[in-house]
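Task 17 of the worksheet. Students: predict the tertiary structure of the chain below and write it out as structure tokens. Keep your answer in the requested format; marks are given for formatting as well as content.
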Amino acid sequence: MLGRFIGLAAGIAAVSVGMAGIASRSASDRAPSTLDAGDENSNWTTESRKHGGWTEASPRESAGEVRLSRAGDSHFYADAEINGRPVRMMVDSGASIVALTRADAEAVGVDVDRLPVSGTARTAGGDVPMRRLTLTSVDVDGIEVRGVPAAVVDADMGVSLLGQSYLAKLGAVTIEGDTMTLR
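Model answer:
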């Protein structure tokens, strides 16, 4: 029981630090990050950064903002459109890329079985196969990013994740109380 509590507290602290980092950045401060190819801490969420970052994704010009309310489970969820089709996603600043469940990927028209397994995702339940792809567009209430790197994770994540390959292309992501604002 104590181990679960400590694990939960560490997870909450990590998410809080990640969200604070996003909130404090402005669009002009962003530069693609790169990691040393020999970095022993690299994993599926950082591997593409070794090859120059996520520079291929570009936001659509939008002066709008989207406000998301904190859910009962303390997470923020967005009703996104991926390739023009609706997908409910959890906003996860700790995920380097958009991560789709197999069911969501198939619902937006991805033939998952035709995608090659391109690595493994390290999850709480262990390593699971993942398949990389580029989404034509990800839109959250009018804030659209095109050419978004993503992965289909062959695990029961329960919900797809709206990660940094989308979030980092926005002008700002802030949290005030129980409201997250995307700009």
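Marker's comment: The first helix runs from residue 2 to 24. Helices lie at 2-24, 102-107, 164-167.
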